[in-house]
Amino acid sequence: MQPRPHKPVTMYVCGVTPYDSGHMGHAFTFSIFDVLARFLESGGMPVKYAQNITDVDDPLFERARRDGIDWRELADRETKVHIRDMTVLGWRPPDVMPRVSDEIPRILAAASRLKASRHAYKTDALYFDTSSYRGYGRLSHRTRRSMIRKLREEELLGKVGPDAKRDALDFPLWRRSSPDEPSWPSKFGEGKPGWHIECSVMAMRYLGPQIDIHGGGRDLLFSHHESERAQSEALTGKAPFARAWVHTGMVRYNGRKMSKSLGNLIKVSQALQRAPAAAVRLYLVSHRYARDWDFEWEGLARAARLVERMRKFLADDARTRRRPVAPGRGLMAEFNAALADDLDTPRAVRALRAALRQRDAPAVRAMKDILIGSASLT
Predict the structure, then answer these.
(1) CA 1 to chain centre
(2) Which of 14, 38, 200, 211 is most buried, judged by most C-beta within 10 A?
(3) Same domain membership, residue 303 and residue 247
(4) What is the pLDDT of residues 29-52, one digit of tens each?
(5) 285 in a domain, yes or no?
(6) For residue 274, what are the contacts with CB-CB under 8 A and spacing of at least 6?
(7) For residues 34 and 26, what is the distance between their CA atoms, to the nearest angstrom?
């Protein structure tokens, strides 16, 4: 992706559904995109970064019912946890963090435009007609059969018939709420938005009809991002909706993907009990963004030892250095080349280690500011 002259790089990253946030899978994704934003800005490219809060979603409502708490209170509490954790891990906060609950009028306006342009139809819900969009499935490189199988596995297939959706791949833009869920009035009936339309509306409101980078975990590629791409391009008539799609891999623990349903989450707060924030952050970004990897406590301990070396070196340098010195060009060139090569953060970490060995404090500081941000070394 080449930068556009005189324009900021626009980046939208799908954020948390705030019902049980704060685990290492979330932290990995948002730390990676923080490195990307910092790297672009260090090269003189301003970044306009939006990351949403999905506070209108079925899992949030289910957890609120289970815990006997108002959904808004649960969302507020877990959003604060998310922001607290990422602040401790040194992120550069997104420029905007819109909440779905604040975007309902714009979501309904977008749904109405899709209905008026015959990209959507109304039965028991308002559905996006995937047959009206050529290329549904191309983003995720899936066949029709594999998409249907994936929807069935995730229990998202739904009913197909005269009083439901016309095709198995069609998805809701607006649907009925259950009696104990929040509901908003609309010409399509009282209800709530579908999942995919939420991000389309927020991305376009804050970043424009076409954006440079759209990111999130790989588990969002289908069906969320596939559907988001289709309805966004149908809304605007402009393609591509995103110039680059960036998906992070899954974090595993004990050989299985970290997930709330499996109960094998490692919380950021747990990791911080064993290592400084900079070590947690460095451990996360030591992995290639697109690959699945296994969280290991020994790996975190190794990152903590590296951070301690860095802390002592920088403290000694600050006491003894008399005047500013520019970082070594060769080391910084290798570091920048690594991040320019599909955000190769493990290679960038190796450049940081080399700068420590060569006792190049300016290079260490410059690399630290991108890889670790403002996370504390102690």
Answers:
(1) 19
(2) 200
(3) no
(4) 999 999 999 999 999 999 999 999
(5) no
(6) 297, 300, 301, 304
(7) 12
Three-state DSSP state, 95: coil
- Same-domain pairing of 209 and 337: no
How far is it, in rounded angstroms, from Cα 166 to Cα 152? 16
Contact 102, 52 (CB under 8 A): no
Percent of the chain residues past pLDDT 70, beyond the cut: 96
- 183 phi/psi in degrees, rounded to 5: -145, 145
Query: Are 201 and 305 found together in one domain?
Result: no
Q: Is 84 exposed, middle or buried (0-12, 13-18, 19+ CB in 10 A)?
A: middle
Q: What is the count of structural domains for the chain?
A: 2
Burial class (CB in 10 A: 0-12, 13-18, 19+), 127: buried
Specify the CATH number for the domain of residue 57. Answer: 3.40.50.620
CATH code, domain with 323: 1.20.120.640
Beta strands in the chain (DSSP E): 9-13, 47-51, 120-122, 126-128, 171-175, 192-193, 211-217, 242-248, 251-253, 256-257, 293-294
Q: Is residue 42 part of a domain?
A: yes
Asked if 29 and 129 sit in the same domain, the reply is yes
Domain span holding position 180 = 9-252
**Both 245 and 310 in a single domain?**
no
Q: Are residues 246 and 366 in the same domain?
A: no
246 and 363 both lie in a single domain: no
Any idea what DSSP says for residue 349?
Answer: H
Same domain? 244 vs 310: no
Q: Which pLDDT tens digits describe the chain residue by residue (378 residues)?
A: 565 666 899 999 999 999 987 899 999 999 999 999 999 999 999 999 999 999 999 999 999 999 999 999 999 999 999 999 999 999 999 999 999 999 999 999 999 999 999 999 999 999 999 999 999 999 999 999 999 999 999 999 999 999 999 999 999 999 999 998 999 999 999 999 999 999 999 999 999 999 999 999 999 999 999 999 999 999 999 999 999 999 999 999 988 877 766 778 899 999 999 999 999 999 999 999 999 999 999 999 999 999 999 999 999 988 887 666 677 688 999 999 999 999 999 999 999 999 999 999 999 999 999 999 999 999
- Cβ distance 368 to 331 under 8 Å? no
